Amino acid sequence: MGAHSRPCQPFRSLPIRWAITTTAVVALVSLFRANAVAQDYPPYGPNVPTAHFDHAHRAHLIPPRPNLKCPVLSPSCDDVRTAQSEWNTALLGYDSLDGRSTYQPLVVRQGDRYIAYMAHHAGCAINRLNGQTEVNGTSIIDVTDPRHPIYLHHIVGFPADCNGSLDAAGNQMVHVCGGDSLPSNSRAEAIRKHGRYYMLRSNGNSSGQPGTESHQVFDVTDPSNPVLLTTIAANETNTHKNWWECYSGIALLVGNDGTASAGRPDSAQGWQQSGSNQHVKIYNLHDPANPEYIRDFGMVGQQPGGVTVEGLVTPPTGIHGPISAGNRIYAAYGVGANGVVQILDRSKVLNGCTKPGASANCAKSPTQAEMLAPQLGWFTLPGTSLQGGHTAFPIFGEEDGKPRNLVLVTSEEGGNECTAGSAPHAIWLYDVTNEANPKYIAEDPNDPARTKMDVPDGFDNTWVGIVPGSGVADTHCGTTNCAQSGVYGPSVTPQDPPAGNKNPNSFCNQGARFGVHSSIELFYPPYYGKLAIAAWFTGGLRVFDIRNPDDPRPIAYFIPDPNDTGCGAQGGPSPGPGCTFGNTGRDGHTVNAIHTNNVEVDDRGLIYIADRAGTGMHIIKLTGEAADVAGGDDHDQDDHDHDHDDHDHGGDGR
Amino acid sequence: MIAVSLFGLAAVSVAQDTAQNTDADGLVTWLCATGAVAPDQPTRQALKIEVGRATREDVAGLLGKPWRTSNDADCEATQYGAVWEYLFNDASGTPFRLHVAFDNDGKVSLVARIPQHGRSVVLAYAADKGHQH
Fold first, then answer.
1. Domain A4-37+87-99+108-346+375-647, CATH
2. In percent, how much of chain B has pLDDT > 90?
3. CB contact under 8 A, B77 and A412
């Protein structure tokens, strides 16, 4: 394998009260290591793989046209949707997830089993296991045999009442840590957690009931019988894409404290933001049943009374999701507009309010200087206000024997059928080797989003309906022409005036969103620094070869088939047919098409995608050239069982 | 006669859909595709939904409790509208769904009939205020 890991020092950044127990903790962790979650890279372990970049010129491949439900549209066949389409991928397994809209997939090795945790948006559907209509929460599936997933349990969302709040609840984000990976402050704590697994999920999505959200921790040691352990930050709002370091216990919880949180000891009201109403609340969940509050944090200017000095808008855009690796935190702000990515010194974030001289209310209401102290760099995105920071995934590497560190950034498409005036949302690569001066790379000035990591809306790999546009003026996107962008015009699909002369065969003609949403966030060494893997809504799963990061190229995709015939035949006892929701685009155009929302990998290299339109979970393997890039042959990747010790070669302790 | 009646119902819905778009073409398409077979009772009920005005309670009063629902907001739920779907069989026993979308004010913005295979048919539509997230 091309990647190796650099062991970090998981405890060096922790507050003193934990650091003094490091010796005992290390001993205990070592004692129980055999039962720890297998993955050793973030967020499970501290080791960050090192990517090896090159300058190779590789032929740019043209993605083949997707298969269509109606290869030729006619009065007798007028279905505009895509059918299952594979390019250097193959479908291994599938589960309908009972037709629930799904956000984040997460697959964890628990002992000798692989367990998928599928985090749902708000809604209600019938649980196949008991026949009851349940508020969407978290589906748990045994995917040890990826060809035959076994639906184990559905943890109901709260409030658990489909009659009273039919669209309430939802638990979009999920992380799982093993009790033997989490550090302990005492032998008794280590023994109590030994062999156990804990699930952290965001809970609720107000839906008109602000202040009813929280984060929850479950004991999922027996994934068929999860047990709620505790609720964190009760009465919060706007919970979303959390991050949980299993090797330290540090949890970066996305949300906001409104007036409903008053009285809670860790309530920090008054944080401000444009767009998504979110900043980060930081806890140590080394003992998941007993959360330890550390502080609140975000972009400078978000703190109570803060003044905006960076970014595109006042107050700054809210955070979408942080990712930590080594002694860095990469924070993406703005979601789908006014994007900013921030690079932070993790240790300074965690310890900034406990060091001598910190202001009295630093944890909940830091000063401007305390907000700026951990910041190493920040940047905006090409298209500026038209693009947002959704995911910022770090890729630490080397090139020609010298360090070269990158950040893979995605925006999020937010409108169905390529909303007129919006920019195509895509992926960008930034070189952050010099963190104070991030440099945008892999630029394609002919692409609407100015990136080589994009997917044209036409099935023939050409752009349809793009017109010139621009975001607000800015100089922080790492290149010239920051504001320059293409945007979708008023005439993209056959629904748009004037009639005729528009290609019905377009990803913009599928009812739902088309554009990027998110990339994987786990550091699977064989893919790390080689393949960028992303969810592209109606475009399905998209994979790019980034071994030469200055010249990335598309190399694989997978577009699932919509589920027309029901959960029963494919997913288990039938709660009823027709599992892909309809979505409505331009001029009421309603299509029950695919809507690939999020993607993640497991440590076998299998790829899991979740569908926003309730189509379910697809388990995919790479084949052909894409598999070759990962360093393997085109054989079943579920036979792989990578020895992660092979990647542990020491390093700089980053 | 039945087709005329169906159009009448649709027209009521459309008429209450002031300054908003409808998919009359879609309705015609569906009628043609089904050979103007008598519309099923659930679809007749769905055509009574007043797009732009009807609330969740109104829809529940006409169609009952939905088979499943969704609000796929990621983190700003109040910017999104919910979707309710109902599951029925037509006279031939073939499943179909009635799809009711609400805007973020809780009023019905669209009613569609989704067959097991093929093209969805929009029965009535009010232009969504849209969202961006």
1. 2.130.10.10
2. 38
3. no
